[in-house]
Amino acid sequence: MKIIRVYSQRWRVEDYHKAWKTGAGVERQGMTEPENLERIVLILAFVAIRLMQLREIQTLAVQLKARGLKEQAEAIELQPCRNVLTQDEWRILYLNANKRGGRYPKKLPSEVTTLKWAYKAISKLGGFYDSKRTGIASWATMWLGWDKLQDMLSGYYLSKETAELIGF
Q1: Which of 152, 153, 130, 147 is nearest to 58 (CA)?
Q2: CB atoms near residue 78 (< 10 Å)
Q3: pLDDT bracket for residue 28 (50, 70, 90)
Q4: For a tag site, which of 12, 74, 125, 146 has the least CB within 10 Å?
Q5: Separation CA 64–CA 18 (nearest Å)
Q6: 2-166, superfamily in CATH?
């Protein structure tokens, strides 16, 4: 029985490797020095885990709803996104997702957004439109959204440091 239980978890290991290889792009790295490759592979392993945490919110909720466990699915989806994203990440994501006509919202929400919302916002940032009506974005799409979020975050930090240097 233990062997069956362990084997049933194999899909999570497979999913992690897909997140790490396809999503985070560990195989696309063109490092020539073994030390550099080792560093980037390790960094991307943590990125893959964060992407997997976000994606599992959606996939687990879909599975629970299919089994008639709606309350349990909602409890998972409604967890605060600060469980996976930093404060700056979710705030930048919120501002970007809620801009209208090129204008950003004037203020942030008083409560932290949910993991379900964060998953959908990152997926959309990566170009996800849910054309197959599965609600599940591909790893490549998740990575694109994550990468764009990190670019926006870098721009935010750069502008913040520049403003401090200038004296604003």
Answers
A1: 130
A2: 13
A3: low
A4: 12
A5: 22
A6: Transferase Inhibitor Protein From Tn5; Chain (1.10.740.10)
Q: Which of the listed ranges 9-13, 90-94, 162-166 does the model predict with the highest average pLDDT?
A: 90-94
Average pLDDT over the chain reads 83
Model pTM?
0.75
Terminal-to-terminal C-alpha distance of the chain? 64
Q: Which residue is associated with the tokens 């670019």? A: 151
pLDDT of residue 165: 83
Domain borders along the chain are 2-166
Residue of higher predicted confidence among 155 and 59: 155
Q: Classify each residue of 80-103 as buried b or exposed e, where b means 16 or more C-beta atoms within 10 Å of its C-beta.
A: ebeebbeeebbbbbbeebeeeeee
For residue 114, the SS3 value is strand
- C-alpha 113/C-alpha 131 separation (Å) is 25
DSSP secondary structure code for residue 21 in this structure? I
